[in-house]
């Protein structure tokens, strides 16, 4: 169960619509999903965007009984849609016995209230739906703090809707308002106070994370961050590379809380792999702000692996959305103070491509400026190549050194195998006839210094 944002106040059978429809949106509730295709917004692929909206509904257990695109030439301030379009939505709800209308776009508080009054059902927009999903999925105390802050921020501008019936009781004169106005102000003050406390707690979380990143920076282990559009396969790839049991389902926003595990890469004894929250188009600004402490984990990475669902018809748009969020975090913007972090694109779900499409993308990958690795996190195809590519970036400053060690010096020989990449190994004999091992090992400067300290 998850709580739906507060709804409007039409009178129905002796009680307000607030009382009638502000209950819970239960799993299995029937919903009609509507995508407003606003001419000025120019949605690239309306059909794919509608499918994503249905995916968001399914992610929270809602049964989508009907979905369709509504072209909007001129936005109506009161309802967004024209009167005929509103009637069409109401008819679809009546025909399918739907309890909920999901508008896959942004609705103002007034538009949401008016639509509820005209359709007689709960109405939530894209922001409200994403907040519902985040509220259900947040597993850690930090995640719940972030979701609550985002939800309060969203609700603050919609408070007037839940107290419309009280505003009708206004009976004061001049600056003296009625009881409805007083109640609204009291509620707004309570929300502001609660948001202030949450922001202070999240600021402490941000400082703590910064300290952890600084501590990891002093440690000898590089950090590899998986980023990507929601449901691109980040958690499946994370599990494949680490053997972890992170939730990985064919659902939007299956992962909210960042997870880190140690992995071994060729020539790298240990690296930290981080799985992050997925991005999505039109991600509510409240969530971007609230989850900034989590997203900032990316800024401490040595390498970013951008996991793309290359089988999606919207893959280019999704790539643009991810790169915009990274730019908002100050990563790879091209400006002077920008963080420059190497990016590897993991073109995931390669197994879902047709032969013709895979050939086209293979040619495209060869033309890309940044490193591209075709893979399937589900089958394991290309994962070794990805590890090799990331390793090459991490060890780009490494130099091949030649060592001649006594064959009996097991400690240092084992150390070189663990901390470097052994390219060649030959046995021989010293001047005194004792067995020796000649080794060619690639080591970065830091590891080479540590090896010299062992001698």
Automatic annotation (TrEMBL):
Mg(2+) binds at residues 235, 255. GTP binds at residues 228-235, 253-257, 275-278, 348-351, 376-378. One of its GO terms (molecular function) is metal ion binding. InterPro entries: G_HFLX_dom (IPR030394), GTP-bd (IPR006073), GTP-bd_M (IPR032305), GTPase_HflX (IPR016496), GTPase_HflX_N (IPR025121), GTPase_HflX_N_sf (IPR042108), P-loop_NTPase (IPR027417). It comes from the Bacteria. Residues 188-215 form a coiled coil. GO terms for cellular component: cytoplasm. Keywords: Coiled coil, Cytoplasm, GTP-binding, Magnesium, Metal-binding, Nucleotide-binding. Residues 222-399 form the Hflx-type G domain. Its cofactor is Mg(2+). Pfam families: GTP-bdg_M, GTP-bdg_N, MMR_HSR1. PANTHER family: GTP-BINDING PROTEIN 6-RELATED, GTP-BINDING PROTEIN HFLX. Belongs to the TRAFAC class OBG-HflX-like GTPase superfamily. HflX GTPase family. GTPase that associates with the 50S ribosomal subunit and may have a role during protein synthesis or ribosome biogenesis. This is GTPase HflX. The gene is hflX.
């Amino acid at each position: 169960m998850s709580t739906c944002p507060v709804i409007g106040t039409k009178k129905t059978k002796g009680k307000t619509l607030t009382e009638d429809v502000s209950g819970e949106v239960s799993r299995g509730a029937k919903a009609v999903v509507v995508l407003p295709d606003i001419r000025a917004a120019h949605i690239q692929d309306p059909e794919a965007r509608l499918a994503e909206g249905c995916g968001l509904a399914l992610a929270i257990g809602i049964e989508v009984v009907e979905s369709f695109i509504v072209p909007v030439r001129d936005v109506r301030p009161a309802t967004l849609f024209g009167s005929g379009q509103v009637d069409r939505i109401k008819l679809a709800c009546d025909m399918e016995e739907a309890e909920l209308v999901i508008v896959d776009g942004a609705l103002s508080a007034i538009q949401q209230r008016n639509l509820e009054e005209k359709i007689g059902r709960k109405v939530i927009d894209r922001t409200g739906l994403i907040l519902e999903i985040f509220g259900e999925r947040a597993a850690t105390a930090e995640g719940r703090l972030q979701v609550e802050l985002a939800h309060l921020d969203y609700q603050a501008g919609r408070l007037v809707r839940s107290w419309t019936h009280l505003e009708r009781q206004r009976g004061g004169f001049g600056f003296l308002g009625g009881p409805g106005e007083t109640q609204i102000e009291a509620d707004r003050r309570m929300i502001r106070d609660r948001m202030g406390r949450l922001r202070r707690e999240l600021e402490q979380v941000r400082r703590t994370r910064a300290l952890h990143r600084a501590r990891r920076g002093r440690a000898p282990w590089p950090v590899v961050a998986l980023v990507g559009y929601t449901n691109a396969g980040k958690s499946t790839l994370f599990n494949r590379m680490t053997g972890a049991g992170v939730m990985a389902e064919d659902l939007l926003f299956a992962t909210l809380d960042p997870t880190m595990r140690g992995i071994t890469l060729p020539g790298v004894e240990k690296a930290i792999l981080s799985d992050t929250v997925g991005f999505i188009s039109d991600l509510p600004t409240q969530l971007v702000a609230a989850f900034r402490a989590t997203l900032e984990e990316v800024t401490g990475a040595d390498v970013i692996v951008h996991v793309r669902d290359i089988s999606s018809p919207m893959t280019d748009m999704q790539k643009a959305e991810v790169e915009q969020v990274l730019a908002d975090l100050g990563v790879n913007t091209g400006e002077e103070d920008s963080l420059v972090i190497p990016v590897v694109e993991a073109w995931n779900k390669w197994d879902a491509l047709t032969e013709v499409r895979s050939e086209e993308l293979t040619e495209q990958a060869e033309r890309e400026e940044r490193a591209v690795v075709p893979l399937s996190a589900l089958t394991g195809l290309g994962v070794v190549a990805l590890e090799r590519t990331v390793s090459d970036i991490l060890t780009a400053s490494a130099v091949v050194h030649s060592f001649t060690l006594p064959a009996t010096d097991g400690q240092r020989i084992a150390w070189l195998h663990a901390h470097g990449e052994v390219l060649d190994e030959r046995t021989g004999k010293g001047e005194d006839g004792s067995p020796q091992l000649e080794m060619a090992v690639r080591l970065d400067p830091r590891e080479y210094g540590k090896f010299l300290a062992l001698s």
